[in-house]
Amino acid sequence: MGEDKKIWLRHKSGSYTTKTGYYTAVERKQITPEQNPRNLSDWLPEIWKLTTSPKLKLFIWKIKHRALPVGDRLEARQVLSGTKCIHCESHESISHLFYQCTYALKVWELVPFSGGFNPMPLNDFDLEWKRLLRTIVLPPIGLGNAILAPWIIWAIWKARNQKLFQNRTFSAQETVTKAICDAKEWATTQVPVKTCEQRRKIQPNRSTTEITCKSDAAWRKDLQAAGLAWSFYRNQKERFSSHDQPVAFVNSSLMAEGLALRAAMEQAVALQMRQVVFESDSLQLVTAIADGSSFSDLHGILSDIYLLSISFDFVSFSFCRRETLCFEDSAAKNSLSNFVMTQTIEPVLV
Fold first, then answer.
1. Cα–Cα distance between 39 and 32 in angstroms, integer?
2. How are beta strands 211-220 and 314-319 bridged, if at all?
3. pLDDT at position 209, please?
4. Alpha-carbon gap, residue 312 to 276, rounded angstroms
5. I want to staple 256 with a disulfide (CB 3.0 to 4.6 A). Which of 157, 226, 296, 307 is the partner?
């Protein structure tokens, strides 16, 4: 049994996304996306798909939502009154802090952008942000513009807070240097996201793997039952063992495929097999295993599959075409047919 886990039911993967969260909020307010004045397509390239730290993505998102506690926002919420810019004593707004303040202008002058970056006095934050993302960072900094720009914005914000709350003053040059160093440090620590197979080194060389296991399932929605079947082969052709099993309380065909694969792995462990390639004609199942997805129907089954994989020296999960599973497909349907005839079956915990 897998550990309890929260599942987001608004997306088939079970994982929360800002897009599905937004549309859920829209439904609750009973408005349509067309009524929203913002262009929703801008959020992905301008924030969520940026190559930068998640905290900076959230920071930029707050700025674009006018949720940053700068002077004008604090006055509007009647938190403080008479707030001024900590650097120049002017009225503090988001656009002023990041683009119009004399301190911010000095910072942007020192950033190594091709052609420089001169904020336009009448533009709001969104328009200047679009311009920033199109600028080019000069060598030898070694950072893309979409990587450096968020760190510059963040450094200006940090310098403001340091002066306001700790009375520590940083020059424009120190702020730019800090932003570049932080951006480089973050970029160098990033590693490609590895799949479950890569993390556990469970992708063997097919030529050295002696055993292939093919699994399939047949499912009836009206009975919430399934027939499972799996077979073991040597050199992809010589079948030396096959098994089938009916199960009850199966909510979907994907769940049935997962149960068949799990049963095959349990059988392989019982037979003390050490190197096995498991094949299934469910691309969704194989992808979920590789990506570590959180499908609500598969959570417990995937947890069992990951635990069972520890018992092998090498294990791989591969997609195969349905026509290569003729024997297993027939066995699974026969198992389900026998259940339909007898209407007696022992439930299986999932």
1. 13
2. unpaired
3. 53
4. 8
5. 226
Q: Which whole number is the average pLDDT over 82-103?
A: 92
Look at the chain and count its residues. 350
Give yes or no for a contact between 14 and 299, defined as CB atoms under 8 angstroms apart.
Answer: yes
- Residue 99 covered by a domain: yes
Residue 43 lies in a domain: no
pLDDT classification of 76: cutoffs 50, 70, 90: confident
Task: Look up residue 199 and give its amino acid.
Answer: R
The token pair that represents 48 in the structure block: 């969520």
- The most confident of 43-52, 202-211, 288-297, by mean pLDDT: 43-52
Domain holding 277: CATH number? 3.30.420.10
Query: What pLDDT shows up at residue 78?
Result: 84
CA 287, CA 317: separation in Å to the nearest integer? 9
Main-chain dihedrals φ then ψ at residue 240, nearest 5 degrees: -120, -5
Q: What are phi and psi of 276, to 5 degrees?
A: -140, 140
Tokens representing 200 are 């556990």
The alpha-helical segments, DSSP class H, found in the chain are: 18-29, 43, 54-64, 71-76, 94-95, 102-110, 125-134, 145-166, 172-189, 196-200, 253-270, 283-291, 299-309, 326-342
Contact 228, 245 (CB under 8 A): yes
Residue-number span of the structural domain to which 262 is assigned: 200-342
**C-alpha–C-alpha distance, residues 252 and 259, integer Å:** 11
Q: Whole-prediction pTM value?
A: 0.49
Hey, what are 329's tokens?
Answer: 């497909």
Identify whether 349 is part of a domain: no
